[in-house]
Amino acid sequence: MSNPPARLAWSGFVTELAELLRARGVDTPLYLVGGVVRDAWLRKPTDDIDIVVGGRAIPLARRVCDWLGADIYVMDRERGVARVFVKQAGRALSLDFADQRGSSLAEDLRDRDFTMNAMAADLLGDCGALVDPLAGEQDLRAKVLRRCSPNSIAADPIRGLRAVRFSAQFDLKIEPATAADIRGCTKELRATSPERIRDEFFKLLGLGRAARGLRVLEHLGLLRMILPDIPPANLPHSLAVVERLATLLTAISRRRTDNTAAAFDLGMLVIQLDRFRPRLQAHLDRRYGNWRNHAQLLALAALLEAGNQAALVAESLRLSAGEARILSQAVSNELVDLPMPATRLEQHRYWQRLGAGGIDVILLGAAKALAAQGVALDQQDWLRRVEQITQLLDAWFNQYDTLVNPKLLLSGHDVKTLLDIQSGPQIGVALTALREAQALGKVTTQEQARAFLAQLSAIGSAPPPAPSRSIREGS
Asked: What distance in Å separates the CA atoms of residue 427 and residue 142, rounded to the nearest whole number?
């Protein structure tokens, strides 16, 4: 016996939007479509609302923009697509208005990617009734991802990557014909713009189940196309690191639940990291082009084994120069080089060398340690590592101005005058030594700083100069 069609439950904003449109006398056919309908069926919140217009979408979008006091961006004038940006109760919503494709709503829906995204609801009519010509609801109930037509993947090969992301995100099995079409379009996907591949791949990396999606990509022959420089023998370990990193990032995120860190390994770490959680989250939420975030970049780093891989991947995915440097630094440095626990001088030099990137090395190092030990976790070794991580993060977040990067008591000009030397690397050497002495609490006044440099000059030795960049920003 088949289940009756579900009634859709809508947020207050969608209901208010429908009332506004009716009150303003809009009688053009309007349909909610795609992900917003799928998420309503799944009872999940969404900030992206797609509306198909049985008429001219852009003029209507402009009117809605005016009524809501919002902003608008015309995305595709030829196809009639415009996005309205709305702020509602602290949330940033986007309303995409698009001309109906084809001669009917059914034809528009058949032209979409997957059946679960080919469902609709009449915005100005019975909004709770599901319009479902391709049985997307049935596939959702069966946990199956199915393409809308035999031409769906070939029409846009990037849908193959999207299929993998959806399968991981919604715990779906890709049905055989769809999987075969994805495998058959590998060559066409390779010809797709690197930017589109990058954006879809990063969406996958941002999932809590990214490792599962990456395994599906490998099974379908797509992962090697995106990351050809990863040796096949290294892939199982790399995927294990991605998995452990995702669990760790969830445990220190807003998505954490009481069960997230129930195991000994994560439980001990989360207890210690909880005091840094808001600041760690701010670090991971840093944004780059096209809304890529730092956590996604860190997941990519977890897949890689060497700095030369990072450079090649950054180039192939068209990452920015800043992202490329962060990726290379995260991959090329290891926390195990630091003693456990570290002295104040070792902590100072660690953060001077890596800057904010030291946080990435810490998180990746923890994920690698957990992946390498698996169920045979050495509890004493792990407790020492947790102590080291806590010590380092406390230095960065709570002792930045005193231990990590104290403000120099003397300038480069002061050093030149005091030591009677010309501009050159010696000044940097002297300033580095002074900063270290300040970090250790040996020098606290300008008078002590002058005496320290005079003594240093007499001895004729000092540590190498520190990098000149702002360590708050990392590489």
From this structure: 69
